[in-house]
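STRUCTURE:
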């Protein structure tokens, strides 16, 4: 399904999503290795939280001046305390950050010259980013595998990972919405599946 209109030279956009520990970044790295840049929403949101004056001002207005340290860095504990204090606080912060990430992505996309670019986000649907892409690929892995990966990668507890999973859209719902599903369960061949998807994308959208 084509979700957006392009100028002749604008890259087409592949949304890359999946739950924690699914292996989204593995697909993104394969895409970059094949010559197609990927915008990582999580990484860029962290950068913008530190540098974007609109975000900084709005977060200070919500959580207090002390949400940033004397050195000007975002105090993650203060922000976390604010988020967990009231369920409505999460949507308030998202309403500040998500539009700035979208705007930053659009500026980034304008600088790209490849036929396709990717945008990686665990909360692609929750953040409304699916309206900015042409196709969505979901990287899928069984929950047990995802938990094991996240525990090893983040050096955290099983309980903490399960809490993060509970905060994200159910994987089965993402599978239903996605145009492509790539299974990354440590058994299914990953690279051949990647090239199959890439071939479809390049054939389907030829300017």
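SEQUENCE:
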């Amino acid at each position: 399904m084509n979700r957006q209109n392009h100028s002749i030279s604008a890259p087409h956009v592949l949304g890359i999503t999946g739950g924690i520990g699914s292996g989204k970044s593995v697909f993104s790295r394969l895409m970059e290795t094949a010559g197609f840049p990927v915008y990582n929403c999580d990484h860029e949101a962290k950068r913008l939280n530190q540098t974007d004056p609109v975000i900084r001002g709005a977060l200070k207005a919500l959580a207090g001046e002390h949400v940033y340290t004397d050195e000007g860095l975002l105090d993650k504990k203060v922000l976390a305390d604010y988020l967990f204090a009231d369920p409505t606080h999460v949507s308030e912060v998202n309403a500040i950050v998500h539009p700035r990430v979208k705007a930053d992505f659009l500026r980034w996309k304008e600088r790209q010259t490849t036929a396709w670019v990717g945008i990686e986000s665990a909360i692609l649907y929750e953040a409304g980013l699916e309206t900015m892409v042409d196709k969505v690929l979901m990287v899928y892995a069984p929950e047990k595998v995802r938990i094991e990966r996240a525990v090893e990668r983040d050096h955290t507890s099983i309980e903490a990972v399960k809490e993060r999973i509970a905060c994200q859209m159910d994987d089965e719902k993402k599978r239903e919405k996605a145009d492509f599903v790539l299974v990354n369960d440590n058994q299914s061949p990953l690279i051949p599946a990647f090239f199959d998807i890439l071939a479809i994308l390049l054939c389907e959208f030829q300017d």
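REMARK: The radius of gyration is 18 Å.
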